[in-house]
Structure formats: structure tokens, C-alpha cells
TrEMBL record:
InterPro entries: ADF-H, ADF-H/Gelsolin-like_dom_sf. GO terms for molecular function: actin filament binding. Residues 1-131 form the ADF-H domain. This is ADF-H domain-containing protein. It is found in: Cytoplasm, Cytoskeleton. Gene3D superfamilies: Severin. It comes from Guillardia theta (strain CCMP2712) (Cryptophyte). CDD domains: ADF_coactosin_like (cd11282).
């Protein structure tokens, strides 16, 4: 039987994506063997999401997490598959086959995170995966040592240099065309 994903799941994904809402997670659960419905959503962050996970079901989820360094914070979207530790083998297998269908509803995301043990479903592990996928991890360098931004000083220095150069190169005498 074909998988059916309730339309409220897509609406919840859009809610998580919107900058104008506080919603930062949406979870989807199975209703029977071939239907996925909205299991919950919230604005309480990873801890609230984590507390909503059942031990005997597969939960699909879409999270909005804030990552970056002190110079630049960005929203990162995470698709999650959590197979509770008491989920039976057939349900695990079925859930794995449904990943492409769920991914079509969720759409683009930065990271896919899978866990089947509550100890693996931590904010630290998810953030670590986000950092590794981001290409540059500035926290390993200057930020870890109390780096203070020099952006304002650099901008002021560049402006001063520009104004000086402009004074040197401006035409000060009238231009006469022949």
C-alpha cells in the first residue's frame, strides 16, 4: 500500500521555515502502517522536541537550529529520523523505505540526522553534525580564544583611505573641451 502523508505535515514544515514564526520544530508520526500525520510542533527548541519522542515509534522531524559564530548566526534546517529503542524490526524497515517520500515533503535541508538510541538524540550531537557539514568551523580558531570583532575598525579605516584617495584624484581645475 502506498504511503500517504497528511497535508498538515507540509504546512508544519513551511511554518518551521518561516522567519516570521517562532515554530522551530515539527514532528511526524505514523498512523497505521502507511500514513504519516503531524505528531506535534513547537517553539521550545531541541529540548521540547526531544521530550516529545516516543520509545516505540518512528518519528520523522524537521528542525530549525541556529548555528554559526559570534560574527554570523544562521538558520540551519535538519531532517531527523528517530527510531525509538522499542520499535520492532518490520516498522524500522518500513520507515527506512519511506525516507524519500518524507524527504519530498520536507524539501531542502542542511543535515539528515538518524538516531535509534535516546542517548544519540542530543542537541550537542546534532550541532556537531551541522558544524561538520558547514565547511568552515570558526569556533576552532579565534572565537574560542575570546576573539573580538574588528569589523567596525576595518570599515572605518577603509572609508578613511577611500576619502584620502578621492581627494588626491579629484579634478580641481575647470575642464576645457576643445
Amino acid at each position: 500500500m502506498a504511503l500517504v502523508i497528511d497535508g498538515k505535515c507540509g504546512e508544519a514544515v513551511e511554518d518551521v521555515r518561516k522567519d516570521a514564526t517562532q515554530t522551530n520544530w515539527a514532528a511526524f508520526k505514523y498512523e497505521g502502517k502507511s500514513k504519516i500525520v503531524l505528531g506535534g510542533k513547537g517553539s521550545g527548541g531541541f529540548a521540547e522536541f526531544r521530550d516529545s519522542l516516543p520509545d516505540d515509534q518512528c518519528t520523522w522531524a524537521f528542525l530549525r537550529m541556529i548555528a554559526g559564530d559570534q560574527e554570523s548566526k544562521r538558520a540551519k534546517f535538519v531532517m531527523v529520523q528517530y527510531n525509538g529503542p522499542n520499535l520492532n524490526g518490520m516498522a524500522k524497515s518500513r520507515a527506512g523505505a519511506h525516507k524519500p517520500d518524507v524527504e519530498r515533503v520536507i524539501g531542502q535541508h542542511h543535515v539528515f540526522y538518524f538516531a535509534d538510541d535516546p542517548e544519540d538524540m542530543t542537541e550537542e550531537l546534532v550541532m556537531d553534525k551541522i558544524k561538520k557539514s558547514s565547511g568552515a568551523n570558526y569556533d576552532l580558531g579565534s572565537n574560542a580564544k575570546g576573539y573580538q570583532s574588528q569589523a567596525g575598525d576595518i570599515k572605518a579605516s577603509a572609508k578613511s583611505a577611500y576619502l584620502t584617495k578621492e581627494k588626491e584624484t579629484n579634478i580641481t581645475k575647470p575642464v576645457i573641451f576643445c
